[in-house]
Specification:
This protein is of the alpha/beta class and about 350 residues long. The protein folds into three domains: about 200 residues, 3-Layer(aba) Sandwich (Rossmann fold), CATH 3.40.50.1820; about 60 residues, no CATH class; about 35 residues. About 50% of the residues lie in helices and about 10% in strands. An eight-stranded mixed beta sheet has the order 1-2-4-3-5-6-7-8, with helices on both faces. It is globular and about 55 Å long.
Length: about 350
């Protein structure tokens, strides 16, 4: 697989598909790109070019711990740089669980670089925040305190990274345990704040600000429950909710592998959301330039603001934003509205059972 030099580190990546608009998909947890490759192939087969990559500290990409920004902000910045190098912007961006958090943050940081969001296994709530805080940070902090970096190297995730790339052991052992603990502590504090948010990593105002086509597929366990996905659906105007796993199981986590039989339906739901906004390639289709995309979709949020007349900058900007929102509302279509109402009715019925 190719390697890209991204913001000082090496990122392992793969592109599936040979033509069509770009899509970037990210797996959950700190899993490697192989965990989303099968779904990515379904999407690529529909006429898209799909980027999958090992995020830093994951898979075969470099280990680099110590950034001041949150782990997900670092991942979002890396993805933006990688997509820029591939001349793949704007792109459809999506992911499950931690990949979902990465995608939402990417859209908040780079709204003009995103054509649509594909979100599944949305994470939120006190239970998820407590469980994942321990899983991602606390146990590694405790290991470093008790046994230094050798103990960190012996724990699950980093042990696997060393098995994949033996040179990673030297990288980790070269770190001062105090530096490692401080970095993990910062990431932990930033993550733990999500317990009070609608979804981990995004406030209600953040979600309200998202104005791009969004497809949401709820999870079905205590870490990724329906209530969290439904909250995101309510707060992202015009988003589509596709419930492929009705009801939540009384388990902390349904393994992502258990979703594999539904990947075809997931890909179809994603394509249904973006089909009206992006025309997939049939064969080796040519991707339009950014300027051509703006002309073809004048009401899409990627459109650059028109120049305001002298003396009327703020008013003109508001007027254009209002016109853009009106155009999007008119373009949704009654069929989509009926589908959302039907979905909402089913959800209400389920909650009253």
């Amino acid at each position: 697989m190719p390697i890209a030099h991204v913001r000082g580190i090496n990122i392992n990546y793969e592109v599936l598909g040979t033509g069509g608009p770009w899509v970037a998909l990210s797996p959950g947890g700190r899993r490697a790109l192989d965990n989303v490759k099968s779904l990515a192939q379904h999407v690529a087969d529909a006429g898209y070019r799909v980027l999958i990559h090992d995020r830093r500290n994951c898979g075969f990409s470099d280990i680099a711990i110590g950034a001041e920004a949150s782990e997900y902000e670092v991942w979002a910045e890396d993805l933006y740089d990688l997509l820029s190098q591939l001349k793949a912007l704007p792109a459809v961006v999506g992911g499950g669980s931690s990949g979902c958090r990465l995608s939402v943050l990417f859209a908040l940081k780079y709204p003009r670089a995103v054509r649509a969001l594909l979100l599944w296994r949305v994470t939120g709530g006190a239970f998820a925040a407590a469980r994942l805080t321990d899983n991602y940070y606390d146990k590694y902090i405790q290991a470093a305190r008790d046994g230094g970096m050798a103990a960190v190297c012996a724990l699950d995730h980093f042990k696997e990274r060393i098995e994949a790339r033996p040179a990673n052991r030297a990288v980790l052992m070269a770190m001062d345990p105090k530096t490692f603990i401080a970095a993990m502590g910062r990431w932990r504090a930033q993550f733990a704040k999500g317990a009070e948010l609608p979804i981990i990593g995004a406030s209600e105002n953040d979600l309200n600000s998202i104005k791009i086509p969004t497809c949401i597929i709820p999870g079905n366990d205590k870490t990724h429950n329906h209530a969290i996905a439904e909250a995101a659906h309510r707060m992202i105007a015009g988003s589509e909710l596709h419930d492929l796993f009705p009801g939540d199981l009384d388990v902390d986590l349904v393994p992502p592998e258990d979703w594999a039989p539904k990947e075809g339906e997931m890909a179809a739901a994603h394509e249904d959301e973006i089909r009206g906004h992006i025309s997939p390639a049939r064969g080796a289709g040519k991707v339009k330039s950014h300027e051509a995309q703006r002309r073809a979709h004048p009401h899409h949020p990627y459109r650059q603001p028109t120049a305001a007349p002298a003396g009327g900058g703020a008013h003109a900007a508001r007027a254009e934003q209002s016109g853009s929102q009106s155009g999007r509302a008119q373009g949704r279509g009654s069929a989509r509205g009926r589908r959302r109402r039907c979905q909402a009715s089913r959800l209400r019925a389920r909650h009253h059972q």
